[in-house]
Amino acid sequence: MTAYSAVLMNPVNKKIIYSKNSRAKLAPASTIKIMTAIVAVKNSSLDKNVRISAYAASMPPSKIHVKEGEVYKIEDLLKAVLLNSGNDASVALAEGVAGSEKKFVDMMNETAKKIGAGDTRFKTPNGLPAKGQYSTARDLALIMKEATRYKAIMDIMGLKTAEIKELNSGRTIKLRNHNKSLWKDNHYTMLGKTGYTINARHCFAGYIEYSNKKKAVVVILKSRKMWTDLERLALKGRKRK
Is 63 known to be catalytic? Predict the structure, then answer.
């Protein structure tokens, strides 16, 4: 296991199947976007229109290169966030739902507290490095478990590719899911969100459904070999009694 922190959890009873430094406060990178999706789905209609601000369009990569003044539906911005990890789409989503990035982040932190993720502090809706922003593998497992309650989020996470459309010009943007496990022929399906920054290293928070009907929530933080670590944890989840 190359990840500094990891957790494998039974989503039904929250029993921990495997744990390694699961309460260490670390940079969560783009796994934050799972909470961004939860807050958006809970507080807005999927077909609401959002106009892109100059601030949202200015975000650094990963981004989908939305442009100031363009208009997209919430559902399409969610796809950009969860598949392509669009930092620009994340801020646009936050502004569209809450009116400002700050108000949206406050909603993220409030939601985290309500679900028991007390060792988490969000500063951004996209996971870009920010002073005082952190989470833990345990908290992210609780956040991922919460995400499974929303069919729209899980359906989007299950897409390998998608195409979204700007509502005024008709400009289309093709998306491809960063979750490489969707293309592998495994005895399980693993939905989730990747993340990476230089400080956070490789991160992942996801939900596994096995062919034998078992389920697990998996999180790894600060990994050097993310997909190898995830495969090992997925095997532990499948073999458990």
Answer: no
